[in-house]
C-alpha cells in the first residue's frame, strides 16, 4: 500500500494544478479573452459562474462514483476533461465557444477539485484521512501563488490561447500521471477502519430527523463560508480602499490573505490536530467577524490584521469542509454526501461576487457588517450541531 505521505504529495501537486488552471485562470486571462473575441470581461466571468453551477450538479455523481470505484478513475477522467476544456477555450472565437469551454471545465471542476480529492482519501483511509486532507490543502494553498504568475508569464510569451494549451498539456503530462499512480481500490473493498475500530461518525447515533438537521446545518455553514471567501477574493481591495487605505496598500494587504490561509492550515495540522473538527470550525468561523470588527473600530490601522485574520479562518475552514462530514457522518457514503453538502456552496459561490458587489456599491466598507453577521450565523449553526452531537450517545443508547 502506498504511504500516506506519498499520496498526500501526489494529490497535493495534482490539486495545485487543477485549481491554478481553472478557479484562478479567469483573474489573469479574462481581459485578454474578452478583448480578443470581442466580448465583455463580465461575459467571461459569467461563463466561469456557469462552470461553478455545472460543478455543483456534477459533485454528487462524482462522489458516488468515488464511493464505488475509488478516486483514481474519477480524478484521471477529470484531467482529460480539464485538458479538453482548456483546449476548447484556446480555440474560442465567439461567446458561445467560451461558454461551451467553461461548461466542460465545470464538469472537470465538479469531479477534480477538493471534494473529489477528499473523497478519494476517505475511500482509502477512512476515519484516518484527516491529516491527509490537511496535507493536500497545504500544497494546494499555493495554487494562486503559483498559478497567477505562471499564467501571466505564459500569456506574455505565447498569448492567452497558448497559455490555455500549456495548462491543458500540464494536465496530460503531470496531473494525469500523478492521479494514475494513486492506490487502486475495488468496489468490494470496505472503508478502512480507524485505529479504534470505529468507522462511523458520531452522527450515526442520531435519529433520522436530527441527522437531516445536522446535514442541513453543515450545508449552510459551507455555503456561508464559501460566500464570504469568494466575496472577499473579488472585493477585498475595493473594501480596503473604501475604508481609507491607498491603492498600493490595499493590493499589498489583500495579498496577505493567501499566505495567512496556508498558516491557518499549518495551525490545523499542528496545534489543532487533536481537536475535534467542530471546535476548529467554530474558531475559524469567528475569524472573519473578528477581523471585520477590528477594521470597523480601528480603521485602516487594522487593515493588515483584517487580512490575516480572514485568511487564517478561511484556511482552516477549507479543511473543515473535508473533515466535518467525515467526523460527523463517517466514511461510508462520504463522496456522495460530500457532493450534496457542497451543492449550496457552489451555487452561492457563483453569485457571490455580483451579490456582494451590490452590497459594497450601496454600503461601502459597511458591507463587512453583512459578511460578519453571516459568519456569526455559521458559528451559531456549528454550536447547534455541537449540542446535537452531545445528545447522540443518549439517542444511540435508547435504540
Provide structural commentary.
The chain crosses the membrane at residues 44-62, 74-93, 99-125, 132-154, 160-182, 214-234, 240-262, 283-309, 315-334, 366-385. It contains 17 helices and no strands. The protein folds into two domains: 4-180, MFS general substrate transporter like domains (Growth Hormone, Chain: A, Up-down Bundle), CATH 1.20.1250.20; 202-398, Up-down Bundle (Growth Hormone, Chain: A). Residues 194-200 and 394-399 have low confidence and may be disordered. The protein is globular. It has 399 residues and is an all-alpha fold. The protein has helices at 4-20, 26-37, 41-69, 71-90, 95-112, 114-125, 130-140, 143-180, 208-242, 247-254, 257-269, 277-285, 287-298, 303-329, 334-341, 343-363, 367-398.
Strand content: under 5%
Task: Specify the oligomeric state.
Answer: single chain
pLDDT averaged residue by residue: 88
Secondary-structure element pattern, one letter each: HHHHHHHHHHHHHHHHH
**Broad shape:** globular
Number of strands: 0
Euclidean distance between termini CA atoms: 38 Å
What is the CATH architecture descriptor of the largest domain?
Up-down Bundle
Helix content bin: over 70%
The CATH homology group name of the largest domain: MFS general substrate transporter like domains
Poorly predicted runs: 194-200, 394-399
Radius of gyration: 21 Å
The main pleated sheet reads as: none
Whole-number count of domains: 2
CATH class of the largest domain: Mainly Alpha
Number of helices: 17
CATH topology of the largest domain: Growth Hormone, Chain: A
Structural class: mainly alpha
GO molecular function, one term: transmembrane transporter activity
Organism: Variovorax boronicumulans
Main location: membrane
Protein name: MFS family permease
Amino acid at each position: 500500500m502506498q504511504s500516506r505521505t506519498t499520496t498526500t504529495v501526489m494529490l497535493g501537486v495534482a490539486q495545485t494544478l487543477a485549481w491554478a488552471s481553472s478557479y484562478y485562470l479567469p483573474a489573469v486571462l479574462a481581459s485578454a479573452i474578452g478583448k480578443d473575441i470581442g466580448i465583455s470581461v463580465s461575459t467571461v466571468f459569467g461563463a466561469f459562474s456557469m462552470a461553478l453551477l455545472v460543478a455543483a450538479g456534477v459533485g454528487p455523481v462524482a462522489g458516488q462514483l468515488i464511493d464505488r470505484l475509488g478516486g483514481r478513475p474519477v480524478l484521471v477522467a477529470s484531467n482529460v476533461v480539464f485538458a479538453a476544456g482548456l483546449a476548447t477555450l484556446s480555440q474560442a472565437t465567439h461567446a458561445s465557444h467560451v461558454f461551451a469551454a467553461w461548461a466542460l471545465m465545470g464538469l472537470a471542476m465538479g469531479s477534480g477539485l477538493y471534494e473529489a480529492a477528499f473523497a478519494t482519501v476517505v475511500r482509502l483511509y477512512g476515519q484516518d484521512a484527516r491529516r491527509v486532507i490537511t496535507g493536500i490543502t497545504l500544497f494546494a494553498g499555493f495554487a494562486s501563488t503559483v498559478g497567477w504568475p505562471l499564467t501571466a508569464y505564459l500569456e506574455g510569451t505565447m498569448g492567452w490561447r497558448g497559455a490555455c494549451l500549456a495548462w491543458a498539456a500540464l494536465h496530460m503530462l503531470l496531473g494525469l500521471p500523478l492521479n494514475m499512480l494513486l492506490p487502486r481500490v475495488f468496489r468490494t473493498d470496505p472503508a478502512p477502519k480507524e485505529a479504534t475500530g470505529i468507522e462511523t461518525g458520531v452522527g450515526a447515533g442520531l435519529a433520522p430527523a436530527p441527522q437531516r438537521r445536522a446535514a442541513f446545518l453543515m450545508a449552510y455553514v459551507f455555503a456561508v463560508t464559501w460566500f464570504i471567501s469568494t466575496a472577499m477574493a473579488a472585493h477585498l481591495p475595493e473594501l480596503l480602499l473604501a475604508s481609507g487605505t491607498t491603492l498600493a496598500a490595499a493590493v499589498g494587504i489583500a495579498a496577505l490573505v493567501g499566505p495567512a490561509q496556508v498558516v491557518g492550515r499549518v495551525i490545523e495540522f499542528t496545534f489543532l490536530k487533536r481537536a475535534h473538527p467542530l471546535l476548529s470550525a467554530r474558531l475559524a468561523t469567528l475569524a472573519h467577524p473578528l477581523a471585520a470588527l477590528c477594521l470597523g473600530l480601528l480603521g485602516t490601522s487594522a487593515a493588515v490584521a483584517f487580512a490575516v485574520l480572514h485568511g487564517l479562518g478561511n484556511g482552516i475552514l477549507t479543511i473543515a469542509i473535508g473533515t466535518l462530514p467525515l467526523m460527523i457522518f463517517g466514511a461510508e457514503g462520504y463522496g456522495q454526501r460530500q457532493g450534496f453538502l457542497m451543492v449550496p456552496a457552489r451555487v452561492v459561490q457563483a453569485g457571490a461576487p455580483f451579490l456582494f458587489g451590490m452590497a459594497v456599491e450601496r454600503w461601502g466598507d459597511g458591507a463587512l457588517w453583512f459578511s460578519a453577521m453571516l459568519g456569526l450565523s455559521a458559528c451559531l449553526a456549528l454550536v447547534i450541531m455541537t449540542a446535537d452531537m452531545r445528545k447522540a450517545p443518549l439517542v444511540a443508547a435508547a435504540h
